[in-house]
Amino acid sequence: MSLPDQAAVQTQIASFETELTHARTARDAQAVRDRYLGRKNSVVASWMQLISSAALEDKKALGQRANELKQSIEARWAAYQASADQHARPSGAIDVTLPGRAPTLGRRHPLTLVRDRMEGIFTRMGFAIVEGPEIEDEWHCFDALNMPAEHPARDMQDTLYLATPVLGESRRADDKRTMLRTHTSSIQVRYMQAHQPPVRIVAPGRVYRRDDLDLTHTPMFTQMEGLAVGDGISLADLKGTLTAFAREMFSPSALVRFRPSFFPYTEPSAEVDISCWQCEGAGCAMCKRTGWIEIGGCGMVHPAVFEAVGYDAERYTGFAFGIGIERVAILRHQVQDIRLFFENDLRFLEQFPY
Ligand code: DAH
After folding, report:
1. For ligand 1, atom 12, which residue shows the shortest CA distance?
2. Whole-prediction pTM value?
C-alpha cells in the first residue's frame, strides 16, 4: 500500500463530510464518525498503524498527516454535533422523519351491508326506496292498517308510547298520540296517502317493541317493508317477487314457501319461509331440521287499508310484505346472537367484508 500523501488527507476529509451530510439519524452519524475516528479499523487508526511500520524517513510526514486528518475530522465532528444539538427536537415534539401510521379504514355496519344488498335487489326489480318517520301516530301504525282499538299489538305491554293513550277514546285520522313505530307497515299508509297507484316501493327502517333483550330479541330492530299496488296484481306476483329476492339474496336454487297466517292488513296473509340454503332443504342445525327458514310476513293488501288511504278498493289490488333485516343478516352470516349487531364490538364488526 502506498503511503497516504497530502492529497489523501483532503480526500478523506471531504468524504467524511459527504457521508455525514447523508446520515439521516443520530445513529447513522455516529457510525460515520466511528468509521473515521474509531479506535479500531477506522481510517485514522489505520493511518496511525502505518506510522509504526513506515520507513524512518517517512515517519515524520506520515505522523503529521495522520494528526492533521484526526484533528480536522474531530473538529468537523464537534461542529456537526453542536449544530445537531441546536436543531434537536424539543422533547415531545413530532419527529417528521418517522414513517407514518396508516389510519384504519372505517367500514359499513353488517346490517347496512345487508340492507344495501336487499335494496339493490328490489331496486333492480323496479321498486323505489322510501322512508317514513320512526315516531308515529296510532292511526298510521294501527288504525289505517285495519287494527282495531282492542287489537293486542296496541297494548302498552308491546308498544313504546311517547304519550299515554286514553283508553276507549275514538281513533281518528288526526289522532296525534305518538309512539315509536312497531313495524314499517306504517310507511305503506303514508306513501299511499301521498301517491296514486301504480305503487312499487320498499321501505327499510328501524322499529321498536317492548321486548327484553335475549338471543333473538332487541327492543329496536330493522325491517324492510314492501308494497305493490296496481291493476290486476296477484298473489303470484308476490310469490314471484319474493322468490326472485331469495334467489339473489341467498342461493340461486332457493325456494319460497307461504304458510297461511294472519295479519289484519292483508287477506290472505302468509309467513314467508325460504328453503334452507345450508342443507338444500335436507334439514340442518340452522333450519332446526325443518329445511325451511322464516324471514317475514306477507299478503294481499286488505281492502280496508285501501279505503283508509282513499284508494278505490274495487279497482286496485296489491301485495305487501315485511322482512326482518337482522333475520336475513343472521341467516346469511350465521350470527348466533342478535345483540352483537348493536354492541358495536369492533372484533365482531370487522369480520364483515365491505
Ligand atoms: N308488519 C309485520 C310485522 O311487523 C310484517 C308484515 C306482515 C308486513 C305482513 C306486511 C305484511 O306488509 O303484509 O311483523
Report:
1. 321
2. 0.71
